[in-house]
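Sample entry (494 residues):
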Amino acid sequence: MSKQIQDLQTGEFIILVPVTKWYKGNDMSDTYVDNILYFKGEATDDYDYYKRYIEDHINVKWFGAKGDGIHDDTASIQSAFNYLIDIREYKNVFPRSYDLCCIIPDGKYLIKSTLLFPAFCTLKGESRDGSILYTDRNDISLLFISEDGTPVNQRKRSTADHLEEYTVIRDLTVAGNNYLLNPTAAKPTPNSFGVGIMMDKVLQVNIQNCSVQGFEMAGIFSHFSAYISITDSLLFNNRIGLLADSLSTCIFASHCVFRVNSQGISLYDSFSCSFVNCLIEANVANYLTQINGYPELSKCIGVHIKNCKNINFTNSYFEAHLENVILDSSNSNIFSNTYFAPFENADFGNSTAVVKFNGSSSYNKFIDNYYDAFNAQVYSPYTFSVENKSLSKGNVFEFTLKDHLDSFISQNAAEFTEFRTLGLAQNAPKLFCTGANEQFMDTEKRFIIDKTFGSTSERPVVNLYKGQYYFDSTLGKPIFWQGVKWVKADGTDA
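Predicted structure, serialized as tokens:
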């Protein structure tokens, strides 16, 4: 026979159901009575032991969390997480009446040390802006996803029955020591560590409808982790909104806002990550103070990608950065159908780069993007730069309209002239217009717009480079510039 009592922590009335076994299968005894989930019956009861009826989640307030912003709630919340870690291994052995889920009711929960949240479980707030996990420290990761209740993961799932499960963090705010402070105000030298959500050697994490703000290292940090999904979330007023390194892969972000960090997104030594319908705007927070300096130390950067490949941005929005994109020794990355708006700000100047190719960055593509600097009366020119012109090659810009192509060429004339002066025209980014009947109309620009097909009489004659390809429709076969003449594939004169 069930009975009802009042929870001493929350004041709510809860239902207790009789039990004879503990959740691990042991015979129930006084040892397992915690007055949170298990209770001892009274002399007038029909049963010796009872268990709280749990519909679909446990609640951190059952374990003593206050959520008043003053009381240190670390131990109470960690106790709730530990219960999930413990019961997770038994979830398919003994029937349970709830999912592996912990709820954070609305309130501000002060956290003084790292919380270890169990992998393959769900953490959700009552509402994104109402449920706040807050730390006033700048040297911890507030939430660390843990496989076994320790801060050391092995990048493997704990047991076979977790193969298809995800860790889910949703509907809450994760707040650092600069939460609600002015992002552009002067700050002391930031500490070298301070992270909102830390993923270290873990797989399969979903972060949904979260706000991560005020951290001196990164809002979200993925270290050697994979299959990470971040959706409908705000990364605001952090040193770096999203930081990923050490072969992090398959990070998928959609409908996210990276705004007023020092850098919106920084990716190192990683690959195969996608960003769709994301807003990367005005990342000018004052954690980093250099302007147009060494990328790792500079603010006003939208995206910094170093030693990466196959990073894709689609249908996204970049605005108000001195450097929207830095590709540093990174290859085969794609930016498509994305909007780029220049930065007009008296504090930082008007020098705006859509992309800087640093190191040996090659074969990157910018396809059908819109650069608002096409309106020269409103915005200053939008430029790109190539740091090492002898190593970077095969980068491509594609435009739909020829007037946009012509405008972009005009704005970057100095860069193209330098390629030509150095005898490296073959390494200059290639520009194409994909609109109907608009390809390759200006013969003076063929050193950057390779004419790759046509009759014998239409062969390019200026700014040729060794190995240049051309399909001769008169001959019906490809030919190549040998250095002084056109030749066929077998080396004979064409």
